[in-house]
């Protein structure tokens, strides 16, 4: 119990927790720290960074989310890859005492082309749906002076976008790689960019806590093991026997009596005195 308490205290003093929302293809270092202990500086001073190679979501046949995946690479100060793993829920990446968990996702941007324009990457913001699910939206200008435009909305990363005209009416639905005519322009959707939400934690007290927990479990198991003790004391012509057992009292008394029978004194000797507990 003392080791478990010591591990919890050490983890609170030297550990930290951070959260990062990173689009696919971006590289990041840990900055968005939510909470950290007063001695967490060495843990936060990392000499490595993480690149999100790709983020994707697997969906069930019914269209609901089945699992999130992030392909992550750990890079050294020279930008060289030193570790690479694909993480998902309950399968984190661990590196130098820091653990990266798959925790959330978002749709931060969409890449579109209006008529023959260059490829535009437009940020998408979460919309208030009143608790009716998640939805992201953006506005696409259709005139050079930004006096007119259309709205796009996406609810997931399956590539389906809802297109609304200037009056707010649904004008079309379009998928990634497809185009549609709206407001007198041709709108082509190149890609809906996904962003992975990572929860990053470091807790140097975990080994101490696990050690204490293991010893506690060992002690609990040992308490179920039966053990007995017998003492003998001879004073002059008398022999005193005593014993105790932590479990199986009836069995121990029976064995103790059998032992006394084996030590049955001769007629010219004093009787034995015994005590069993």
Characteristics:
19 strands, 5-stranded antiparallel sheet, alpha+beta, 17% helix, 277 residues, single chain, 3 domains, 4 helices, 7-stranded antiparallel sheet
Short structural summary:
The chain has 277 residues and is α+β, with helices and mostly antiparallel strands. Helices cover 17% and strands 48% of the residues.
* Spans of at least 5 consecutive residues with low confidence: none
Radius of gyration: 35 Å
Structural class: alpha+beta
DSSP strand tally: 19
> What is the H/E string?
HEEEHEEEEEEEEEEEEEHEEHE
Number of helices: 4
Helix content: 10-25%
Please describe what this structure looks like:
It is a single chain. The strands form four sheets. Strands 1, 3, 7, 8, 9, 15 and 16 form a seven-stranded antiparallel β-sheet that branches. Strands 10-11-12-13-14 form a five-stranded antiparallel β-sheet, with no helix packed on it. It has a four-stranded antiparallel β-sheet with strand order 2-4-5-6, with no helix packed on it. The chain has three domains: 2-106 and 196-218, no CATH class; 107-193, no CATH class; 227-276, no CATH class. With 277 residues, it is an alpha+beta fold. The chain starts with a helix and ends with a strand. The protein is elongated and about 120 Å long. It is built from four helices and 19 strands. β15 and β16 form a beta hairpin. α1 (2-14) packs antiparallel against α3. 20% of the residues are buried. The model has no long low-confidence stretch (mean pLDDT 85).
């Amino acid at each position: 119990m003392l080791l478990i308490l010591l591990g919890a205290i050490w983890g609170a003093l030297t550990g930290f927790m951070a959260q990062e929302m990173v689009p696919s293809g971006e590289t990041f270092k840990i900055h968005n720290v939510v909470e950290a202990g007063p001695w967490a500086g060495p843990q936060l001073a990392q000499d490595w960074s993480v690149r999100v190679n790709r983020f994707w979501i697997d969906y069930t046949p019914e269209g609901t989310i089945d699992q999130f995946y992030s392909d992550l690479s750990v890079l050294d100060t020279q930008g060289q890859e030193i570790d690479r793993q694909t993480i998902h829920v309950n399968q984190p990446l661990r590196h130098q005492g820091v653990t990266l968990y798959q925790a959330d996702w978002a749709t931060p941007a969409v890449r579109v082309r209006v008529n023959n324009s260059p490829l535009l990457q437009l940020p998408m913001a979460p919309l208030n749906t009143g608790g009716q699910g998640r939805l992201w939206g953006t506005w696409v200008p259709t005139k050079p002076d930004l006096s007119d435009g259309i709205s796009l909305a996406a609810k997931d990363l399956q590539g389906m976008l809802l297109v609304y005209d200037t009056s707010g009416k649904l004008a079309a639905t379009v998928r990634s790689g497809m185009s549609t005519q709206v407001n007198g322009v041709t709108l082509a959707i190149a890609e809906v960019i996904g962003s992975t939400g990572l929860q990053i934690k470091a807790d140097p007290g975990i080994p101490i806590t696990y050690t204490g927990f293991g010893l506690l479990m060992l002690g609990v198991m040992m308490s179920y093991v039966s053990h007995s003790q017998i003492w003998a004391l001879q004073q002059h012509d008398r022999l005193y026997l005593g014993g105790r057992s932590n479990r199986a009292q009836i069995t121990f008394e029976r064995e103790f009596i059998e032992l006394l029978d084996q030590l049955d004194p001769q007629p010219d000797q004093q009787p034995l005195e015994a005590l069993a507990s």
